[in-house]
Amino acid sequence: MAYEQNAPFRFMSFKEWVPDGIRFWIYMLFLACFQFSNGMYFTAMSQMEGSLAITPNDVKMMSHAMLIGLTMYFPVAFRLKFRFTNRTCLITAALVLIGCNLIVPYVHSTPLLVLLCFIAGFARLFGTFECFSSVLPKVAPTYNYAVFLSLVFFVVLGVIHLFDIASTYIIYFYNWRYVHLLAIGLLLLVILCAYMLMRPFRPMPKMPLYGVDWLGMVLCSTFILSLIFVVQYGNQLNWLDSAYIRVALGSATLALAFSVWRMFNVRHPFLEVDAFKTKNLLNLLVIFLLMGILLTTKTVLQNTFTGAILHFDALNTVSLKWFEFIGMALGAIFSWFAISRLKWHKKLVTFIGMSFIVYYTVMMYFLMSPATNIEKLYLPLVCCGFGQVVIFITLTVYAQATARFRNYFQVICILGFIRTGIASPIGDAIYSRAMSGVLSKNLALLGENAAQSNLPMVNTLQELFGYSVILGAITLIAIAASRFKKHIGMPIPTFVRMYRVVMRR
Q1: pLDDT at residue 219 is higher than 50
Q2: Is-contact 280 394, C-beta < 8 A?
Q3: What one-character DSSP code corresponds to residue 104?
Q4: DSSP for 139-176, written as a single string
Q5: φ, ψ for residue 213 (rounded to 5)?
Q6: Do residues 159 and 31 make contact, with C-beta atoms less than 8 angstroms apart?
Q7: For tag attachment on the chain, is the N or C end more exposed, with fewer CB atoms within 10 Å?
């Protein structure tokens, strides 16, 4: 047994003639390709609106559907991994994403586009999880999740920013549909490499899919997507005056009721009751909600500032993502060092991460001027990227340490309802509504002549950033006053220990 634990790690899913030194990097290539592949690309929003006759809210709804599809994969992650071979998982995920990228540019039905984006999100994490779960023993031989999750969130969030940069250049010089062609080409590369270099390999005995609560997944998806629809379209459709909003609220209520009933009456529900009993879960949900609302200042207020006031073109705007990427890299390194090496309390690291997001809003408050040049935005964006990654890593590590392994991925799914689900639409709705009201007030106070100088808009953005600073200060006080309960320490389950031994043979 001692020999097996000290033996060098080998990726057994590859054919014997593939050199050991490149196997890890092949997985990293696969990861990059999957992160480059969505059903819909937010950087092509304005072009898609004209080509497919859809509204900005439609595009945002599709983006949220993709993230919810990604979130819904977590509770069934290991069931799918141990049912299919490594190569089958990668090829299947790539084929589904290719199908979505082929269909989406030519569909004009918004509900169908939302469904396709949901499927694409599920397939994207299907392939991503297969890669990450395979490299886990290599990246963190002692199963230190602080090290592993630092890599995970840097790759997931960082590569997305790099792809946004690449896709913006493609859209600027060519056509938005070429982005889908790029994704298809990368996914074909994944299929070719997986078929040529890998062999059918399953680290554990074949596990049937019998007992997976697929209906529970549908109900949970319906519930959260209905809520997102209400928040995203509420202002456009005049809230409860619209029959669509009322139907969405009714659907959400029924889906929630049936989900709760199944939780108590089905032997293996999609989300178990014990998952909701995880220590400090409510605190984590609130922190993620407040972080999501604060981060929408970047997508709503900052984009309005750079577009309407500074008049940046697409290339100048996307160049700012390089500094978010740098901040994310620094945040991942800091999280790894603070949690894994220095053993800092996760409450302290969370406070530091949120402080950097609040510092971003403070700096943006003082930068609201038509005379601001692009260089002054670099430091705020580095701070924003840094804080976002630190909070994602720290709170996910804390959830891993407090939840039982049986419920860990269910807890991640629950956190995803807020983290990648409802938080962003809520923030978008709040700031969009507030911007409209505050701008009307400023126009009335300053008069029509001042509107020619963009002064009302500048004052509106500065006022809303000021409110964001206050919200951020309240969030920091709440974190400082909250109690991060002592974790129980999630033991490595038997099948993971077996998996580690198998992979070292």
Answers
A1: yes
A2: no
A3: G
A4: H-TT--HHHHHHHHHHHHHHHHHHHHHHHHHHHHHS-T
A5: -85, 80
A6: yes
A7: N
Compute the distance between CA of residue 31 and CA of residue 153 in angstroms, rounded to an integer. 12
Q: What is the pLDDT of residues 226-248, one digit of tens each?
A: 999 998 888 888 888 889 999 99
Q: In this structure, what DSSP letter does residue 297 have?
A: I
Distance CA 353, CA 367 (A): 22
Tokens 């109690």, located at residue: 483
Please tell me which residue, 71 or 279, carries the higher pLDDT value.
71
Each residue of 150-165: pLDDT tens digit?
888 888 887 777 888 8
pLDDT score of 149: 83
CB atoms within 10 A of CB 53: 10
Sorted by sequence, the CB contacts under 8 Å of residue 490 that are 6+ apart come out as 400, 401, 402, 403, 404, 405, 408
**Which tokens hold the place of 377?**
């935005």
- Cβ atoms 86, 201 nearer than 8 A: yes
SS3 state of residue 14: strand
**Burial (CB count within 10 angstroms: exposed 0-12, middle 13-18, buried 19+), residue 264:** exposed
pLDDT in the model for residue 451: 55
Residue 233 to residue 70: CA distance in whole angstroms: 22
Predicted confidence (pLDDT) at residue 80 exceeds the cutoff of 80: yes
Cα distance from N-terminal residue to C-terminal residue, the chain: 11
The conformational region for residue 210 under phi > 0 = left, psi -120 to 50 = alpha, else beta, is beta
Can you say whether residue 454 is alpha, beta or left, with left for phi > 0 and alpha for psi between -120 and 50 degrees? left
The Cα–Cα gap between 477 and 482 comes to 9
SS3 315: helix
Q: How far apart are CA 115 and CA 113, in angstroms?
A: 5
Q: What is the mean pLDDT of the chain?
A: 84
Q: Are 163 and 73 in contact (CB under 8 A)?
A: no
pLDDT at 187 over 50: yes
Query: pLDDT by residue (tens digit) across 436-481?
Result: 888 888 777 776 666 566 788 888 899 999 999 999 999 999 898 8
Q: Which amino acid is at 345?
A: H
8-state DSSP, 41: -
What is d(CA 58, CA 228) in angstroms, rounded to the nearest whole number?
11
**Dihedral over alpha carbons 320, 324, 330, 334 (to 10 degrees):** 150
- Determine the average pLDDT of the residues in 172-199: 88
- Provide the angle, in degrees to the nearest 10, between the axes of the packed helices 177-197 and 86-103: 160
Neighbouring C-alpha atoms within 13 Å toward the C-beta of 256: 11
Q: How far apart are CA 173 and CA 287, in angstroms?
A: 40
